[in-house]
Specification:
The protein has 403 residues and is of the alpha/beta class. It has 16 helices and nine strands. Strands 5-4-3-6-7-9-8 form a seven-stranded mixed sheet, sandwiched between helices. A two-stranded antiparallel sheet has the order 1-2.
C-alpha cells in the first residue's frame, strides 16, 4: 500500500513536470489547465499516453475549460514525444504492423462502428448539405457557406463539364454528388461502406443523376471522366495505398483528373493512435506526403497540392458547438460516456490542427500530365455558370486560372 502511494505520487510529479513544459498546470486557473477529479488519471496519462488521456476524460477523471487549447499546447510543445508510452506503443506495433487492418474483409467495419452511429447525430452536427470533411473558410461567414466553398472549389479543380461521369470514393451522404449534379450537370456514382449513408443519401439526392452503392473501392470496375475522394483514404491504411491508387488509375480515363481530399500526417506512420482506433475511427490511419507520393509513383502525375489544414480547426469547433447545442435532441439514443467521448474527439482534433500536427490536403492527380500544365484554383469567386461558359470556348485548363 505504501509503495502504491509512492508510485502514485511519482506519477503525479512526472505529469506536473511534463505539463509544465507547455505552460499547463494541474488545478490551475487558466482555461487550458487540467482539473483533476481522480488521481488515477496521473498513472494512466503517463503509462498509456493517448489512450489513458482520452479514456480518463471520458470517465470524468479530469476536465479543462478549453480542451482544444490544452491539446494545442501539449502537441505544440511535443509533450507526447517526451512520455514513454509503453502500452500504447505495444498496441500500435502489434495491431498495425502485423495485420492489414484495412483489408477487403474488414472494409465495412468503419461503416458499422462510426458512420452508422445514426444519421440524426450527423444531421445535428454538420452543415445543411451533410459534409463530414473540412470546410473551406475563404471569405465565408457560416459553416454552410464554407462547405459550399469547398464543394465549389472541388468542382472547379476538376474542371467539370456537363455530361461527365464522376466516381465519388467514400461519398458520405452525397454532398458532393448533389452539388455537382445540380450545379455542373454531371452524373455521379458514389460508393460507401455505410448503410445509413446510402439510405439517407438516396433521399437527399432524389431526382438527380446520383447513384449510391454499398461497395468497397476495390470492387469498382467502370471508367470515369473524373474521380473525387473526400476524407476516405484515411480509412485505407498504408498497406493498401498502392492498390487504392491502382484502382483509381484503372477507373479513370486517360485524360481524366482525380482529386484527393485528405487529412495528412507530418511524418510517415505505420501505427494507429490507440484511443481514436478504439473509440472513433477503427483501423484509421493518416497518410503522409511521402507515403502518397510513393503510392502514386508511375500511376499518376501530382499536378497540384493545396494545404488548408488550419480551416479544419474552425470546422471542428463549429461542429462541436452544433453537437453541444443539439445534444438534448438526440441524447436518449446514446448511452454511457458517449457525450464526453464525442466532445473529446471533436475538441482534441481541433487542437491537433491548431498545433499544425495534422494537415488537410487537396491533391490533383492526372494519369499522363496535363499538356501545358495544370492551372489550379484557390478561391471560388466565379459562379458555376461563368466557368461553364468559359470552358465552352475550348481554351481548357490554361486560360482560366484563379491562382
Amino acid at each position: 500500500m505504501k509503495n502504491e502511494k509512492v508510485m502514485n505520487a511519482n506519477y503525479q510529479k512526472i505529469t506536473e513536470e511534463i505539463l509544465g513544459l507547455a505552460g499547463v498546470k494541474i488545478n490551475g486557473s487558466a482555461p487550458w489547465d487540467i482539473q483533476v477529479h481522480n488521481k488515477e488519471f496521473f498513472r494512466r496519462a503517463i503509462t498509456e499516453g493517448e489512450l489513458g488521456l482520452g479514456e480518463s476524460y471520458m470517465y470524468g477523471w479530469w476536465d479543462a475549460e478549453k480542451v482544444d487549447e490544452l491539446i494545442d499546447k501539449i502537441l505544440s510543445a511535443k509533450l507526447d514525444e517526451k512520455i514513454r508510452r509503453k502500452f500504447s506503443i505495444l498496441l500500435k506495433l502489434f495491431t498495425a504492423r502485423v495485420f492489414n487492418l484495412q483489408s477487403k474483409r474488414r472494409a465495412f467495419i468503419i461503416g458499422e462502428k462510426h458512420y452508422n452511429l445514426g444519421n440524426d447525430l450527423f444531421q445535428n452536427m454538420l452543415d445543411k448539405r451533410m459534409n463530414y470533411s473540412c470546410a473551406y473558410w475563404h471569405n465565408a461567414s457560416s459553416l454552410d457557406e464554407a462547405q459550399e466553398n469547398k464543394l465549389e472549389l472541388i468542382c472547379k479543380k476538376l474542371y467539370l463539364e456537363p455530361g461527365m461521369k464522376v466516381l465519388d470514393i467514400g461519398c458520405g451522404w452525397g454532398a458532393f454528388g448533389k452539388y455537382s449534379a445540380e450545379k455542373y450537370r454531371v452524373e455521379v456514382v458514389g460508393i460507401t461502406v455505410s448503410k445509413e449513408q446510402v439510405e439517407l443519401g438516396k433521399k437527399l439526392c432524389e431526382g438527380l443523376p446520383v447513384v449510391f452503392r454499398l461497395k468497397d473501392y476495390r470492387d469498382v470496375k467502370e471508367k470515369f471522366d473524373r474521380i473525387v475522394s473526400v476524407g476516405m483514404i484515411e480509412h485505407v491504411g498504408y498497406k493498401n495505398y498502392r492498390i487504392y491508387f491502382e484502382t483509381a488509375n484503372r477507373c479513370l480515363k486517360d485524360d481524366g483528373l482525380f482529386l484527393l481530399h485528405t487529412i495528412g500526417n507530418v511524418k510517415s506512420e505505420k501505427s494507429i493512435d490507440p484511443w481514436t482506433h478504439k473509440y472513433i475511427f477503427p483501423n484509421g490511419m493518416l497518410p503522409s506526403v511521402a507515403q502518397i507520393s510513393r503510392a502514386v509513383e508511375n500511376l499518376f502525375v501530382i499536378e497540384d497540392l493545396h494545404n488548408f489544414g488550419i480551416d479544419y480547426d474552425k470546422t471542428l469547433m463549429v461542429w462541436y458547438a452544433n453537437f453541444k447545442n443539439n445534444w438534448d435532441k438526440i441524447k436518449d439514443k446514446y448511452e454511457g460516456h458517449f457525450y464526453r467521448m464525442w466532445e473529446y474527439f471533436l475538441l482534441s482534433s481541433a487542437g491537433s490542427f491548431r498545433a499544425r500536427r495534422n494537415q488537410l490536403w487537396q491533391i490533383i492527380l492526372s494519369k499522363n500530365g496535363i499538356q501545358g500544365g495544370y492551372q489550379s484554383f484557390r478561391n471560388s469567386s466565379y459562379s458555376p455558370s461563368s466557368l461553364a461558359r468559359k470552358m465552352e470556348t475550348g481554351d481548357g485548363f490554361r486560360k482560366y486560372s484563379l491562382c
